[in-house]
């Protein structure tokens, strides 16, 4: 009898323990569930008024499984030519039929038909968007409409060289040179995004030359007035994507100088921002909202936010420090997420927050050579370094997801001290580099798989080339 009672008591204890354990599991699961953001969104919609319905939550979850893929996520289109974009819609991994709505961010640059046919009209950079009929997903393609014009600052000649590119072979033909007038020693050069105006920063005279670009032929004529006195020994310059503002790096005043670009292509001075740095490098973010600035022997880079209401700048952030024993160059990744600072002796990679301007360290890659400039392929897959003292151009492959780079190949044999700047055409098929003392532009084709450069020959632009810009 006692044995039977003991057994019943033992089983009762087991049941009690089991119930307590189950209760604890339920409480833990309930608390964990409450901490789930999705459950909180359902139970407490007042915490986020923008998602105050189960329908909104369902739409959010549904959209995460909706994907649009385009046959081209970027492209360079020769002005007047067209490009057929194709889109595919995948819903929960399954290809789904839909009618896409196609839109262009600027129809004065290119239009897009209901079937995705892009027709280029004028110079510029735009975004083509394909959106599904149910509105759940979209995808974009970055399109650059180009004319195949290359403009070169000819430093010793105080002129601008104008060349045209055969958009099939990539071969350049020297067309003309244009005097910078009262401007001597042009180094920095740039065109507005819509191809109407050209500017040179003239280092020795401390002036900025102003040109008008013929929209049909690409020929230059001096604007009125032909130059602006800047008193600043300007180096390089950048222009905002909307063509409203110009910023230049001033060696003479150790400053960034800001200008508005008027409707007639003349400049109006806005303000000067002291950097306490002399010889310097300036660059602009891909979204056009920030200016990056670094100088010789400086081991950090500063970002400045652009106020688009008036063109003024305000300090945004300062990067982590990096090794630098000489002048360097800054490039930005086409996806806008990474900045490449090439200095001596390494390339430092920063991730970039396009909302705040903050920069965070990603990686440092040693190269141990000199640096004058860099260039990044429009696909974002290849990165090039011009080693001025060694006469070498190096190619690195880029992982767009992490931003990290790996050495791939190089081209050698150029006279030490000659290599200056390099540009890549918007299709990503050809590259051109300034070989200053040899008075040549080096022409290359680009392997679209490896990024390797193949030499195509020299062309004389009419003088000693320093810097280049492509339209």
UniProtKB/TrEMBL annotation:
Highest taxon of source: Bacteria
Asked whether the keyword Membrane is assigned, the reply is yes
Please give the biological process terms from Gene Ontology that the record holds.
glucose metabolic process
Key word Membrane present: yes
UniProt entry keywords in alphabetical sequence: Carbohydrate metabolism, Glucose metabolism, Membrane, Transmembrane, Transmembrane helix
Q: Which organism is it from?
A: Leptospira noumeaensis
Q: Which GO terms describe its molecular function?
A: 6-phosphogluconolactonase activity
Domain BIG2 stretches = 64-140
Segments traversing the membrane:
20-39
**Which segment of the chain is annotated as a signal peptide?**
none
Q: Which family does it belong to?
A: Belongs to the cycloisomerase 2 family.
Specify the protein name.
6-phosphogluconolactonase
- InterPro entries registered for this protein in UniProt: Big_2, Cycloisomerase_2, Invasin/intimin_cell_adhesion, Lactonase_7-beta_prop, WD40/YVTN_repeat-like_dom_sf
Coiled-coil regions listed in the entry: none
